[in-house]
Design a protein that fits this description.
The complex is a heterodimer. Chain A is an alpha+beta fold. Chain A contains 3 helices and 8 strands. In chain A, the strands form 2 sheets. In chain A, strands 2-1-7-6 form a 4-stranded antiparallel sheet. In chain A, strands 3-4-5 form a 3-stranded antiparallel sheet, with no helix packed on it. The longest helix of chain A is centred in the N-terminal third of the chain and has 23 residues. The chains are: A alpha+beta, B alpha+beta. Strand 8 of chain A pairs parallel with strand 8 of chain B.
């Protein structure tokens, strides 16, 4: 009987206890806020479009497209010169026999790419967009 | 506080899944670029597996990698034994079956591609002369599967003419895409595989067709769990004596020349990237003459000509040409 009585008291005490204390709720809210901030930062903190520049399949540079610029990558084969104007990017000069990448002209929409096969340079636009597409045709051989 | 720790762990696990499920990769294979986007918990290892298989294929079928089986065959003397493997045999048989679809599809035309200066290793985009009729006729005499003898028991191949050469490039990109799909399709929620503009996806995706005579795009359509490939006369070509010569060689030994209603860009959509790749080449040569073949196989095509365009099959293309 004593044992049962103790169990009942414990059960009543357990039932009487609140599932979450005030400080539990504050701690959970803080954690959720921190996680949300991290997710926004990691997944979409940068609302502007940018261009990923790959060399030999390795990502070497991410260029924001909201600031006009012109720059040359001297450490990359062909020493390509890039131009960023009006949220679009182009390779405007490169030492390459066929100049297909230069003729591709400016690109600005999500997933568009410029490829310089002889020098193994790829530029891909990354942007949050409902108008995303892929391109068929073009850039088949060096 | 235990509750807080547990909830934190659950949230963090969900975050890791959310962030780690999609992987994009860019690189180069078969003389062109590739791009993969895989959504899977195993995206990283699947990407590695696909790229590894593509590298293996390139090391067997490249015409320019020293020591590849195709390189060894193309540089062998007549009656010299060259070792082959099961992958080579599979692609050889596939090439034979593709050439049986249409006689104009001929992986044994590589000597003609070289003669016209269009092989990936020799193409410069400029021509100071073109081959003579006599040279073309002579070269045609050894552009045939009959110049090769395969011994499946000893896994060797020999040539009856040392000048005979092969190149499976006309459908190898498509085959590589199909192989990639086979590897990832059961393990990925979503995938997009792109080898030089030959694409397969299980998503519903807008595809733009490159403008064959300038920058921008000439058409768009929706790819829905299908593959697409495009051939054209606008990259590997040169202009000689005011005539545009492109790299796709017809059965008469001459490049498919632009004429009235002849294709300058062909986009084929359907189930298999290998077939899309093959059919796009066939249509570049045959034009409207390929309609029955394309439609009987259940494929669709958008054919752009200098002044107009036409469609084969049921696919809806939004064209601005």
């Amino acid at each position: 009987m004593t044992s049962t009585g103790n169990s009942n008291e414990l059960y009543s005490a357990y039932r009487a206890k609140k599932a979450f204390t005030k400080w539990d709720i504050v701690a959970i809210a803080l954690i959720l806020i921190i996680v949300a901030v991290c997710l926004i930062f990691i997944l979409g903190g940068d609302d502007g479009a940018y261009a990923d520049i790959y060399y030999n399949g390795e990502l070497i540079l991410s260029v924001p497209l909201d600031e006009d610029a012109e720059f040359t990558l001297y450490d990359v084969a062909g020493e390509p010169t890039f131009s960023v104007i009006d949220n679009a990017i182009a390779i405007i000069d490169v030492d390459c026999p066929n100049q297909i990448c230069v003729h591709t002209d400016y690109i600005s929409q999500d997933n568009e790419r410029i490829v310089c096969l002889p020098n193994k340079i790829t530029v891909v636009i990354r942007a949050d967009s409902d108008d995303s597409f892929v391109v068929t045709g073009g850039v088949s051989y060096a | 506080m235990k509750k807080c720790i547990i909830i934190t762990l659950i949230i963090c696990t969900l975050c890791v899944c959310l962030i780690g499920c999609t992987e994009s990769a860019e690189g180069y294979v078969f003389g062109t670029f590739y791009s993969t986007e895989l959504s899977s918990n195993a995206a990283s290892s699947l990407t590695d597996e696909v790229v590894s298989v593509w590298d293996d294929l390139d090391n067997i079928f490249s015409t320019s990698i020293t020591g590849s089986i195709v390189y060894n065959i193309n540089n062998a003397n007549s009656n010299e034994l060259v070792a082959i493997d099961t992958d080579f045999l599979y692609i050889w048989d596939l090439a034979v079956s593709m050439s049986e679809l249409s006689a104009v599809f001929n992986p044994w035309y590589f000597p003609l591609v070289e003669l016209w200066g269009f092989s990936p290793d020799t193409y410069t985009g400029v021509a100071t002369s073109i081959p003579t009729d006599a040279e073309i006729t002579e070269t045609l005499s050894y552009c045939s599967a009959d110049c090769f003898v395969i011994d499946r028991a000893t896994m060797t191949i020999t040539k009856t003419d040392s000048r005979a050469q092969i190149d499976f490039g006309a459908f190898l990109k498509g085959y590589a895409v199909d192989v990639g799909v086979d590897i990832v399709q059961d393990s990925c929620d979503e995938y997009l595989i792109n080898v030089g503009g030959t694409i397969a996806t299980n998503r519903n995706l807008t595809v733009m067709v490159t403008n064959p005579r300038g920058s921008g795009y000439v058409a768009s359509f929706t790819l829905d769990n299908e593959a697409v490939a495009t051939s054209g006369d606008y990259e590997r070509y040169y202009i000689y004596d005011d005539v545009r010569y492109s790299h796709i060689i017809s059965t008469n030994g001459y490049p498919s020349i632009c004429g009235d209603n002849m294709p300058i860009s062909v986009t084929v959509v359907g189930a298999s990237a290998t077939y899309c790749d093959t059919l796009s080449t066939v249509i570049m040569i045959l034009g409207e003459g390929a309609t029955e073949l394309v439609e009987s196989l259940g494929y669709s095509a958008l054919v752009i000509t200098e002044d107009s365009y036409y469609v084969m099959g049921d696919k809806n293309f939004d064209v601005n040409w």
